[in-house]
Design goal:
By secondary structure, the protein is α/β, with parallel strands linked by helices. It contains 14 helices and 13 strands. The strands form two sheets. Strands 3-2-1-4-5-6-7 form a seven-stranded parallel β-sheet, with helices on both faces. It has a six-stranded parallel β-sheet with strand order 10-9-8-11-12-13, with helices on both faces. Helix 10 links the parallel strand 9 and strand 10. Helix 4 packs parallel to helix 6. It is globular, with a radius of gyration of 22 Å.
Length: 367
Amino acid sequence: MKKGNILILADLNSPLMKPRILMLRDLSYHKYILHNANNLSLEDSTLADYADFKVLEHPRISSPRMRYFYSFFYTFYLLLRLRPKLIVVHWASRLYQNLLLALWGKRVIVHTMGGDINTQEDCYGKKKFFTGVLLKEARIITGKTDVMKEIARKNFPFLNEDKIKIISWGVEKRFFKQLDRGQKEKEKIELLGKNYQNVFFSIRTFKRVHFHKEIIKAFLESYKNNDEVCLVVSLLFKEQDYFEECDREFNFQENKNIIFVKINHNDMPRYLHISNAILSLKLFDGISQSIMEALCAGVFVIASEIKNHAMLLSHQQNAYLLKDFSELNEAFLYCLSHKFKKIESLMLDSNLQKQRYLQILKENFNV
C-alpha cells in the first residue's frame, strides 16, 4: 500500500544523481522528482532511468529572474499539493526555493556537496545566506566525509552536530570490472586511436582550480614526443580562456600524445580501465566521485596531499600524494613502475551505503 509522497529536488543531468536517487526506488511511496530550473531539457534516455518516479520539469524560460520566480511558486504549489512525508534535496544551493523548503524543514534531508558548504568554492554571499536558511531548518544534513562535516560546522556554526550524517554513496558496480590485456588493447585503439603502452588521465573539469597547466607542463617534460605514452585530458565544462592560455603556452597541435576528450559519465569506466593513473589536483577538496571510481577500477590516483584524501588514498600504495607540483614527474614514474595495492573501504560499497541511507530515513522520518 502506498503511504504518501516523497518529493526529490535534483539536477537529473548530473551523473551523480542516478545511483543516489535509485536507492529510494523500492520505497512504497509515490516518488516525485523536480528537475532543476536550469533550462536544460532531459533526454528520453535519462527519463527512462527513472521509470519508477514521476519526473516534473519546469518550462523553458529564458530570463533567469523569471525562471527563479516561476520555480519558487511551482515548488510552493507542489509542497501544498503533495504534502510530502519526505523532501530530499540534492545540493542546497537553491536560493529562493530554500525559503520554502525551510518552512517544511522537519521533513527535509539535504545531501550537500562541496560547493554548498565550502567558502573556498561557491559558498559565499547571497548563496551562503540562503543555503544557511535551509541547513538550519532541515532535520538531517549529509556529507560524504567527516571533513565535510567539519567544514559545514565551521561555515555554519549554528548547525547541530547530531543532525549531520555521513553517507559516501559508494560506487556503481560497473567500475569494478577488470579488463585483460587484449581487452585493454582493443579499448585503447577504439577510444584513443592507438594502443598506447601507458595512459595518464587528467580527470577533473578543465578549470584553473584543477591545475591542468601544471599537469600538462610536467607531462611534456617527461614524455614530449613519446609515442608510447599519452595524457588524456577531460574537456567537460572547460573554462575557455584558461584552455586558450594553456594552448598558447604548449601549442597542443604540436603535441599529439595529449588527447582531449569530452567524456560523459557512461563512458567513464572505459577510460579508467585503460589508464595507468588518474590525476586529480586541487588544494581543497572532498572525496571526489572520480577518485572513488578509479580506486574501484584498480587505477593509481595522483592527487594533492590534503586531509580528505587520507581517508581513501595511501601514499605509494593506491596513490601518489603530492606535497608540491614539482613532484609530478616523480609521480608519473612511480605509477608506471609499481603495482597498485587495493585497500578495502566501506566508503566504496554502494550496498552498505544504501543500507545506511535507508536506516537514516527510517529513524528520522519514519520512512
